[in-house]
Model the fold of this input.
Amino acid sequence: MRAEQLPRAIAALMMMARATGSISLLLFGFFLFNGAWQSVALFQSSSSRLLWNTGLSLLFFLQHSGMVRRSLWAWLAPWLPKYTHRAVYTIASGLVLTVVVLLWQPTGFLLVELQGTGRTLARVVFFLGIAGFAWSTLTLKHFDAFGISDLKARLKGTTPKPQPFSIQGPYRWVRHPFYLFTLLLIWSCPDLTADRLLFNIIWTAWIYIGARLEERDLIADFQEPYQRYQRCVPMLIPWKKPREVKADPTNRSR
Done:
């Protein structure tokens, strides 16, 4: 690519990352809040629909977890410069998540339907999850949801400054607050259909497994400071009073 074409290409990549990320998150949020809707009827039987939904979920898990592996990006390095990796990841995740939401096949078989106070409490839990996301994002200060900070740095000819490994806000209660608040959103729908129960179970399992795998990389990055953090702070369930954990200022957060 010619040097004069690079700014336009980076700007287009930034726009795509913002668009796909924003649209997919809005669709997913509506899906979690209101349940699935049928955009396209692909199957008649409930069993076929549940199998299809399982396949959609596995597709997202494979993409989302597979593309965080450093070995994949090392293999793609000849074609994709490092400063594009996070934006490309956002675009791929957004596209696959949109496919999951739009092609999800509801069964219509209602298992549980909360009414009255129970329904109100479920909605309160959902919005507490949204508030938790905002709290976690504000705590990180320079949180880059769509992976465009590296692209901005490339345009400016600078190197992104790594954030220090700090333990503040919800990170004093659990090591993975974004996962915790996602679980609140997942399980707070007051109308539990067969397909929604399937979604809740397999996505909860994936979140737990994903957190375990992510911690391998965090230990490799931060070593003893993160292991000390593991010993003091629960992974997903805030079951004990937060303790003051000193972070090593020489280490970097991701």
Notes: The first strand starts at residue 110 and ends at 113. DSSP finds nine helices and two strands in the chain.
